[in-house]
Structures are given as structure tokens and as C-alpha cells.
Amino acid sequence: MNNFAYIGMGSNIEIREDHLLLGLKELDNDKQITVKNVSSIYETVPVGYLEQQDFLNMVVEISTTYTPEQLIKITQKIESKAKRNTPVRWGPRTLDLDILLYNQENIKMEDLTIPHPRMSERSFVIVPLMEINPQLILPHEQKTVSEIYRRLLDKEGVRVWKMNSGVGEYGLFGN
To answer: Which domains does the chain possess?
Structure first.
């Protein structure tokens, strides 16, 4: 596995944790993906469309042999398996998987931009990313995650919902 990527995961349709677990297991069951690290689960208020439940969010570090184009297809397939349907932009969803970073590349294609746009402004991405790799440099800003974390204004709105204990297959989910 020669590429590394960070994937942001979110859910705000019950049972939120089950949707995250499905996404994590689907990533881990793929023979071309190895889950390397998993953040705690954080509860956050919605951004954009506010008339919805709070989200559970986390970040997963993986290594993979997939190209970015292949990886986006895999994440979309996992979202489909979770019956994702989002008729409202930034609206409720069973499962959202976003490729945040892929190696240290800047990629701009029709249906994929890496690093993920607005990730540096989103506490629900930076806080869990800070937990698993604070020294990671974001290639589009040439700043570390910890530098970006320090300048965030709304990080208090991101609360630990379930701490990653480092025990069990994924740490936070147990065996």
C-alpha cells in the first residue's frame, strides 16, 4: 500500500454510530485499503443547512493502492450501501465519506478536489485530524494541522462523543 489518504466521515441520521461503523468496516474489508488510524467520534452542530440533527464525525487514516479516482468510486459505493440520499445540500445523511487528503497532492478534477475544499475552515474535520496527526502538513496551505487548529474559531462546538480508547480492532469500536 503505497498511498496514504485521510477520509472524513459523518452521519446525522439514526443510528449515527452504526452508519460510521458500516463505513469503517467497508473501508477495512477492501483488500486494497488498510485502516491505519481512527479518531474519536465527535458530535457537531450542522453547518450550512441548520434544520437537522447534530452530526457524528470522525477521520480515518488509510493506506491504499487505489488512485484518487478509484478511491472516490469506492467511497461513493460505501455511501450507497448506507442508503445515502441527500436531496438538500448539506442536509441530513446516513453516511458521508469525504477524501480530505491523498498523499501530499493537490488534485482538481470535475468531481473531485483534494485537499477537500473548506476542510481548513471546518472544525469537525480539523479537530479529529488534529487528534490523529497534528504535524500533518496540508499541501494547499503549507501549514500543519496544529497551526490550522489554533486559528479555528468554532472548535468548542466539536465535542468528543466517544473517545478512541485504542482497544480492539479499531480502538473505539471494540472487538
So the answer is: 3-162 (3.30.70.560)
pLDDT tens for 7-65 read: 999 999 889 999 999 999 999 999 999 999 999 999 998 876 667 789 999 999 999 99
Catalytic residues: 84, 93, 96, 98
Q: What is the DSSP letter of 171?
A: S
d(CA 122, CA 145): 12
Question: Grid coordinates in use for 128?
Answer: 479529529
| Whole-number Å distance between alpha carbons of 134 and 118 | 18
Per-residue confidence (pLDDT) for residue 82, from 0 to 100: 84
**Amino acid at residue number 163:** M
Angle at 57 (CA atoms; ends 26, 135), nearest 5 degrees: 95
Residue 124 cell numbers, joined: 469537525
